[in-house]
Amino acid sequence: MRKYWLAGPAATFAAPAFAHHPLGGMPMETFTHGILSGIGHPLLGFDHLFFVFLVGIASVLMARRVLAPLFYLAAMLGGCLISSLWTTLPASELMVALSLLVLGTLVLSGRHIGQTAGLCAFAGFGLFHGAAFGATLAAQEAGFGLPVLAGYLIGLGVIQYMIALGAGWMCASVWKASEIGAIQPRLAGAMVAGAGLYLILEHIEGPLLRAIAS
Fold it and tell me: What is the model's pTM?
């Protein structure tokens, strides 16, 4: 039964969490606040958590368990800087939802994930995940200083790399599923793809109903 531990976390985190904030909405004013917020956001937001979890699994299937998640992290931190210091990326939340559907479907398919395609997907979608994180800082009524930004980026990077490595370890060592087509990664892909489809439908429901009514 240990192979199906994924069902428990899925039920725990599968709830809307776009407004996640580990400080309870309090402004981030110190380096420590930044670290705590950076650590908490990927854990409280199931959309980000599911994607990073699947990045770790896909990295094992690509035989790049340690290196491949770094492509996601680099783009994610870049997107966070862009969104918090300059401008928001368009439709970032929709792209986050799409990332779950796309990566989930790739893993679910049981087919070989090419390294170039996989790394491009990690980096491309990572940019939008980072933009969603950066919007938290940009939305603060009071300005934030460099210590807050530095702590936030460190927290985001460290916790997500740990999640990806942990998922990779579970896939390779607990599930013993490092081969393409193994059932446990495919089940994880199905769960994440389903969550992505749900979020996409949630995003387009309002505009679609307004278009039909007009």
Answer: 0.84
